[in-house]
Amino acid sequence: MTAEPVTAGAAFDRVLAVADAILYEGYLLYPYRRSSAKNRIRWQFGVLTPRAWTEARGVDDEGVAGSAEGWWQQTECLLEASDESAVWCRVRFLQLRSRSVEERSPEGGHRAVDRLRIGSRLELAFDEAIPRDFDARIVIGDALNGERRFALSAPGGQDVEALTDDAGRPVGRTVSRSWPVDASVTVSAARCPTAPRLVRLRVRVENADRTTPPDAPRGEALRRSLIAAHTMAAAREASFVSLLDPPGWAEAEARACSNVRTFPVLAGPPGERDLLLSSPILLYDHPAIAPESPGDLHDGTEIDEILSLRTLTLTDAEKREARATDPRAAAIIDRVDGMPPEVMSRLHGAVRSLGPAPATAGEDAGKGVSEDASPPSRWTPPDAADLPPDADVVVVAGRRVTKGSRVRLLPQRRGSDPQDMFLAGRTARVEAVLLDVDGSRQLAVTLEDDPGAELDRWYGRFRYFSPAEIEPLADARGPE
How many CB atoms lie within 10 A of CB 422? Predict the structure, then answer.
């Protein structure tokens, strides 16, 4: 079955900004120049390479993050739905397009060159990408009766653009070429045995290319790969269930979901459950682009203010190379160069986490507690534990926890880093008890079963948890 364009109304528009940030994450990094080492090895997230090429390299990582290449990815999610409910699925990815530069000879022919200078303008050969979207509509009842398979195909092609000098004389041309990309999407559904009101929906995306030789270089394999592949889903008369923070009655089914090289989170405004984004980069539920951000810098892990200030320090020659590297790089340079002071000042920071202070035990007396309330904290503040404010020890469940203590990790459901949720139940060793700038305490830990823990300890690279997110183990250090 071939996927045909269908419409989900404006549903996907609510998450398009975040989805675009995922699509172009790492596309081009500061200093946005082709000559930069970090822009010579590209395409790192959600890359679905041809099957034979992938298997020849023995790639077998099936984690939830899409930082390792594979020939398929799988999303499993839960939704409360009837047989008549409908789901629109949208698969998005980048298709590689190679741009070469050719210089015109006196005889009128052309020869390939690495770069071409035309007056003050510079043209460079570089790999670009074309965004691709494919939609399919699924009725839950149909998917319950058997899997639905869709064939996707992005055609290849070639575009030629003439280059002229300031006098309008032809001096060369750019040739942009792309290669066909073939993929398949299989959608299936099943009622959950322990929670019949739930449907487990599975979307599997595969690279269907059969033309790339197993011994081809990576650059050739990328031509027929799905880059930054991710899936969005919009439901009608149905509601998705958070896998990061499921209700108690759905916890077992949420844990049973199998997500490979991608992970689904609730998308759209908080409180809404009709939209899902499954990304190769781990996200929170309801991710959003900061309203202060004036545009994509293709590096969501960095701070807009820092990147913008660094971009302003580039020399004129560096900016000229960046503009010649890629149109998106040129847009970043132009946007930062023309950024008004009031827009730059907004990048300095914003506080969104202010809220009422947690009530004390006395204030809670006689009050009802909702089902969504977090469990009472088991750790004792320093003043109540007769410890100095700068003590490198905390008391949790009556036990003193300090450097060297063994603990079990229990990340909070709300407000935790989504990657920490996959460490729940793992044991760790405390490397330090730190005082944060806001007066709160954090425990720096290394995982006990991590083969790289000793190296992390030597480098000082730790994972951080609050005292409320750990359970002291039996051999944790007791009162001295």
Answer: 16
> What is the rounded CA–CA span in Å between residue 204 and residue 296?
29
378-472: CATH number: 2.30.30
* Per-position DSSP letters for 241-293, written without gaps between them: E-SSS--GGGHHHHHH---BS-EEEE-SSTT--SEEEEESS---SS----TT-
Bridge partners of residue 278, in order along the sequence: 231, 264
Give the global pTM.
0.78
Q: What is the pLDDT of residues 306-338, one digit of tens each?
A: 999 999 999 999 999 999 999 999 999 999 999
Which contiguous run of DSSP H or E holds residue 364?
helix 361-364
pLDDT at position 78 is 97
3-class secondary structure per residue, 127-193? EEEEEEEEEEEEEHHHHHCCCEEEEEEECCEEEEEEEECCCCCEEEEEEEEECCEEEEEEEEEEEEC
pLDDT score for 359:
47
Report how far Cα 11 is from the mean position of its chain's Cα atoms: 20
Select from 9, 26, 35 the least CA-distant residue to 297.
26
Residue 122: name the closest of 391, 335, 321 by CA. 321
CA distance 353 to 350: 9
Give me the count of residues in the chain: 480
pLDDT computed for residue 64 by the predictor: 79
HSE of 401, CA atoms in CB hemisphere, 13 A: 35
Share of the chain above pLDDT 90, in %: 60
Place of tokens 């991590």: 450
The number of CA neighbours under 13 Å toward the Cβ of 28 is 23
In sequence order, what are the residues at sequence separation of 6 or more whose Cβ sits closer than 8 angstroms to the Cβ of residue 183? 48, 91, 151, 152, 153, 205, 206, 207, 208, 226
Domain boundaries, the chain: 12-288+297-305+314-329, 378-472
Q: Do residues 148 and 185 lie in contact, with contact meaning Cβ atoms separated by under 8 Å?
A: no
Give the DSSP letter of residue 212: S
Give the rounded distance of the alpha carbon of 412 from its chain centre. 21
Query: pLDDT confidence of 475, banded at 50, 70, 90?
Result: low
